[in-house]
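=== Structural record ===
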Amino acid sequence: MRLDYALSTTLLLGASSASIMPLPQPHYSVYREQLTSLYHGHALWEPDPANLYERVSVGDVGYVREGYFFRMFNVRLPWNHPSNRVLGEPDPYEPVDLGPFINIRESRLSRGDYYSRYVSTQDVNAGVQAQAPPADGNAIISYRCRKRLGAVLSLPYDGYRQDVIRTKAFEDYIRDHCENWFAFAQRNRLDVQRMEDIILVSGCTLVTAWAAAAFVDSNLDSEISLGCQTLGSAATFQWHFARQISQSVAYNNSQERADPPQTQCVFIRGFRAKRILLGLYTGLRAAAEPLPDNPDRRRDGEMQVTRVPNVPSYRDPLVGVLDYIAEKCPDNTIAIAHDDDLQLVEEVVRANNVFPYCANW
């Protein structure tokens, strides 16, 4: 079941809402959340494949932990391909069939700064709003975020986008194989707690150089400056910030290389799936409600305690979409969502507070 039917249910019956007390978020979660509203996909705090694989590719199956994409295997390749056996050997499978025609659309992501709505920029040298680092030369850009969470991605060179054309083939494929992928992750003791953590990559954005910052303290006015020196296809970054706000801003950047290849993945786009347990749905609403005290188990003089379950400090918005589909369409067995769906539901999110943990976009 996809999102369009679930949204029609919301518009007819009204959206449900839940209150979750906000808890501190790690910098990589703030970064991913804040760049969600740009609709380029899932922003990775750690774009470098770090020698575990060559680069993110369409057809990869994996999961994200602490801002890094862990590739399990690629379903466009044979199951026994050497690159598919890094984290474990998958069960035999037939590669996804995309037909004999062109299946990958290629495009460009322009160089420049990509930042969330509460971040402002200024060219320190020129004293005007910054547009993009120069193609060759030096620039110092200041980024400011006033008592809000925020994030920025700076690209000194154009990025390269790949996206699958026949998305329906990927949607059908994840429906048929998602449970086997989750079993693979569990069998190999990977850090995959839920089936919906697994991503089938349908698109990615690759770059040669990047710099990223996350404003993690919404109680402070924070500012950080980035010096960027570019020459040819190489880039060198240097960060500057006031000592008193050093704990409120996290930053990261690519390493300087003489002739860097486009292997750094700053955004991934893909499908996720969630098993709907008929009559046993315990999604967002159940996680947010306190568990009542049982008076029959209380001893004399014992304090009454209302227990609240552990609520994660960060909820991936796309997992929220899956929870929402599962709640609105309980008669189906599999809920499927794609990163592009987040753009479709923005108006519903803001108008009805369907996914409260997206409120900071």
